[in-house]
Amino acid sequence: MERSEQELVRRDNLTKIRELGIEPFPAATFPITHLAKEINEKAEFGEDNMSTNYQEVTVAGRLMARRIMGKAAFASIQDSSGRVQIYVSRDDIAPGEDKALYNTLFKKLLDLGDFIGVTGHVFKTRTGETSIHVKEFTFLGKSLRPLPVVKTDDEGKVYDAFSDLELRYRQRYVDLIVNPKVKEVFLKRTKLVTAIRTFLDGMGMIEVETPILQAIHGGAAARPFATHHNTLDMPMYLRIANELYLKRLIVGGFDAVYEFSKNFRNEGMDRTHNPEFTAIEFYVAYKDYNWMMDTTENMLECIIKAVNGGDNAKVMADEHEINFTGPYRRLPMADAIKEFTGEDINGADEDELRAIAKRLHVALDKTMGRGKIIDEIFGDHVEAKLIQPTFITDYPVEMSPLTKKHRSKEGLVERFELFVNGKEIANSYSELNDPIDQRERFEEQVELANRGDDESMPMDEDFLRALEYGMPPTAGIGFGIDRLVMLVTGQKSIQEVLFFPQMKPEA
RNA sequence: GAUCCUUUAGCUCAGCUGGUUAGAGCAUCUCACUUUUAAUGAGAGGGUCCUGGGUUCGAAGCCCAGAGGGAUCACCA
Q1: Which nucleotides of B are covered by protein (CB under 7 A)?
Q2: pLDDT digits (tens, 9 = 90+) for A417-453
Q3: Which CATH number goes with the domain that contains A477?
Q4: What range defines the domain where residue A232 resides?
Q5: How far apart are CA A500 and CA A502, in angstroms?
């Protein structure tokens, strides 16, 4: 492998550090006392510009900038919290005759990106920047590749930003080091997940783990990733959803379960789809989809506030300010179509629906049934217009093989999806618990599969057996975590909210 | 899978209609500098111009094929 000039210099520096008798990759614990951020935020200063509360601090991190002025230098150390400036003077770190620690190690052999630890007192410079006056300096780890050097001026303007998307995604570690805003997005993601867990735990739900490797892929309409179990000599699938397993646990007597589920779908990739993505699903016995709408409003309001901090339940998405304070509008699908297109689909048979679709310039193909046609009309004319959180309720039965039939509306099911900023972020039903009805729905799915639909659900006899033992009336819901994070962080691409998005292999 | 855009130094980018030895800033190297902060001043090095063919006296730039990335679309969450 060809190494660049800068890499060669760094390897040469590594050797020379060893020759100085310094281990460039030391093993021992380094006792950090403070983080950069707390020093910058909490340091107090006396008349002499010396810190009164930070007389001796020890910090560690990467050297990210260095400005050498002969016998003294300023540099920046970046740790997990941010950056702090350090001031290094030759005679302070090398008080004796031997000035090698400063002249050789600090000035020559140290490269940007190296890990160092420093101990010293905090003071304020002439220009007013909080800094650490270093008296002890420890080498903690060598960086053999040059990081992109991103500079920011007084006005916060960024120069030479590390912005190549391919490099940022393939080398997320570099992205995280040099682009602090990227780190903020992922910290928000963690906050969001934690807030959801806290909310659900607070409702008394049990967090569970169900199989990712499944013999029968159920619970959603999608193409699975297929693999093979050698010992059992049988095909297996990475889960496309965990729904059927969570329902088995409701059968088993848990009243309320949830799982953060990594799901895998073998389909196209774009800025809202990654082959591997995260959902949160929860199922609660003796509840219906109306209760679930109430709960969804409470949960979203609560978690958005937690992520934003304080009492703010609003996020900016594109140009829209979205308010997650409940209650949200609840709009039956047929009413939504009427509102946005003027067409009434209530009671329309397939031929009438086709005529409506034609008037609305919705492209159809011959294989589509009633449910699919309605879904197409909705997708083309309504979905993008649902900006503030809106529950669309009461879907056609054909699209929802795991959903209980509507208690009063013929041909519909008790299902809702939550739309925000023109995109679906949650899908929920009153769960179908009639095993005889469920078997018929599976049979319809199998029929679709026989006609070539590779996204239909396979028959799951064990799941039916569980339902035959009896499942209480139950409400369930699934949220797409990645899309929720995109919404909360204002990101337009799923790749910006996944640490390691799927990429094609490097050449 | 389709269409369009894109790929030049470690990073961010110029590079005209095809014409000397492919440029800049940062980074790197050498020298100077004890309160700088996009540090500064002086000098230097660094290139598979994504890959492979072709056209041409001559290709980073044109043509063909391929790869990576992005956008839009289709499928989907």
Answers
A1: 1, 9-13, 25-30, 32-40, 45-46, 48, 50, 67-77
A2: 999 999 999 999 999 999 999 999 999 888 878 877 7
A3: 3.30.930.10
A4: 182-328+388-497
A5: 6
